[in-house]
Amino acid sequence: DSGVTQTPKHLITATGQRVTLRCSPRSGDLSVYWYQQSLDQGLQFLIQYYNGEERAKGNILERFSAQQFPDLHSELNLSSLELGDSALYFCASSVGGTHTGNTIYFGEGSWLTVV
Amino acid sequence: GQQVMQIPQYQHVQEGEDFTTYCNSSTTLSNIQWYKQRPGGHPVFLIQLVKSGEVKKQKRLTFQFGEAKKNSSLHITATQTTDVGTYFCAGRGAANFGNEKLTFGTGTRLTIIP
User: From the candidates B7, B102, B104, B106, which should be mutated to test the interface with A, based on the most A CB atoms within 10 A?
Assistant: First the structure.
């Protein structure tokens, strides 16, 4: 158990819909990262927040948005869903940022299936 | 943008044989991390390398960071069935200090033949 909690674990929704994925980082961790992993694909970095502020942005679509709340939990919002958005979405957390060499801990992921 | 490639994409080895995966970045890295993802699981941090030419060992695993800090390798000696999984490298570009983006490699999926 990494200490990073993600909900829901599984989600099936229709095209065009909007979903919210939630993440609670490990206690004490200030950074939250979101990654997308499609079937047989690598990990695509989406976005990172540090203590409530956006710190780095990857290949996140405009239809996707995220935020980190004062209690440090984070949400990833996916809208106007397309079939290609079906993937495993990981949240990860670390004490600081990657440039400080902190270990990143991954949650178990949220499986999103768009039908 | 920064790209991180890994070879091979797949590797099947007999139990007891050695295994190596190679990671190559299109740009110089400030540091590189390695992760292992078991089938159906989530990535788990293994190690971080920071210095040019650095070599670190964890039991049967040997990690190396290239002199030019653009490539890295993971070598497993005498593989065991517990080594099954996908191994990812992840690098942060030296040119974008302050940028937190960590680029993951394409991964190498290791399967063990008992």
Answer: B102
Distance in angstroms (rounded) separating the CA atoms of residues B83 and B61: 10
Q: Report chain B residues whose CB lies below 8 A from the CB of A104.
A: 33, 45, 102
Could you read off the pLDDT of B75-85 as tens digits, one per residue? 999 999 999 99
The 10s digit of each residue's pLDDT in B84-95 is 999 999 988 765
For the residues A89-114, what does the mean pLDDT come to?
86
pLDDT band at A2 (very low <50, low <70, confident <90, very high): confident
Per DSSP, B16 falls in state T
* Residue B104 touches chain A, beta carbons under 8 Å: yes
**Rounded to a whole number, what is the distance in Å from the CA of B71 to chain A's nearest CA?**
18
DSSP A79: -
Q: How many whole angstroms separate alpha carbon B72 and alpha carbon A53?
A: 32
pLDDT digits (tens, 9 = 90+) for B53-64: 999 999 999 999
* Nearest-angstrom CA–CA distance, B65 and A59: 26
Cβ(B70)–Cβ(B27) below 8 Å: yes
CB–CB contact B102 A44 (8 Å): no
Question: What dihedral do alpha carbons B77, B78, B81, B87 form, nearest 10°?
Answer: 20
Q: Please spell the DSSP secondary structure of B40-78, one letter per residue.
A: TS-EEEEEEE-STT-EEEETTEEEEE-TTSSEEEEEESS
